[in-house]
Amino acid sequence: MSMIFFACVVRVRDGLPLSASTDFHFNQDFLECRKRLKALSSILAQYPSRGTAKGRDLSIHFLSSGDIACMAICSSNYSTIMAFCFLEELQWEFAASYDTTSISLASRPYAFLEFDNVIQKVKCHFNCASGSQTRANWEKIEEELKFRPPVQLRLEDTELMNGMTNGGHAGVHVEVVPTYRMQRVTPLGILSLVLNIMCGALNLIRGVHLAEYSFQEDHEGIGNVIAFFLPFLACVFQCYLYLFYSSARKVKTFVLFFSVCLCNVYLYGLRNLWQIGFHIGVASLSSYQILTRQLMEKQPDCGV
């Protein structure tokens, strides 16, 4: 039968339970899955905010935000999208029920025992309600899972069981590499993008104009043409590095910055010192913005 069997709320950094449960199934497969859920909860901090551990008959889904995570045991044929719809609603119910900004999760680990009533209510809604009712957030979750798919684990991994006995430090086989997300774009970052685009346009215009003259009359000016086109390409790549994650960002940033500096020094005579200083200053600002914009793998806190 396709349904949700169990759900709970835990603390991400150590798997401490933040909710009780009245769900008791004496099926051996379910009890074994509960043990693996407990082991997985102790190592959630190692993984992205969404994940699925699939088994033959049962699967575990988890959704973390800030310092809490919602976890659920479902039948393996239960829709993954519906499972994350359920976990998202449970997460918002938890945030709405408790002012966790003023409650110390460390000092009151079992302050949320009564939240089981909410869990049962939401679980019953998803198990019993019609498709039109439960699919209210279907398209939103489906789009999010396409953009940032959940990490895939194997429920049968012996390492997952060992995580409980070894203090939660055992590794688990990961099949999907998490998608990286960058922090929000700042006003200063937007300014650097605008200035970078302007410098790139100036380099392109001057380069095209000089290329028309050089190829027709002055073949010795090809070096100046290259010195205009290289900074144009550097400006384009600086915009890309600021907006999107790329490996070896520091190395690429310094290479682009020094390319802009060397080309502008080479162009001394065609550009005065103020123009050269402006282009190098914009490249410096862009490089600083690239290096200070960090990764953000997890979604912002949901009122927690």
UniProtKB/TrEMBL annotation:
Residues 8-119 form the Longin domain. The keyword Transmembrane helix applies. It comes from the Eukaryota. Gene3D superfamilies: Longin domain (3.30.450.50). GO terms for biological process: endoplasmic reticulum to Golgi vesicle-mediated transport; protein transport. Keywords: Endoplasmic reticulum, ER-Golgi transport, Membrane, Protein transport, Transmembrane, Transmembrane helix, Transport. It is a multi-pass membrane protein. This is Longin domain-containing protein. It comes from Mycteria americana (Wood stork). The lineage of its organism: Eukaryota, Metazoa, Chordata, Craniata, Vertebrata.
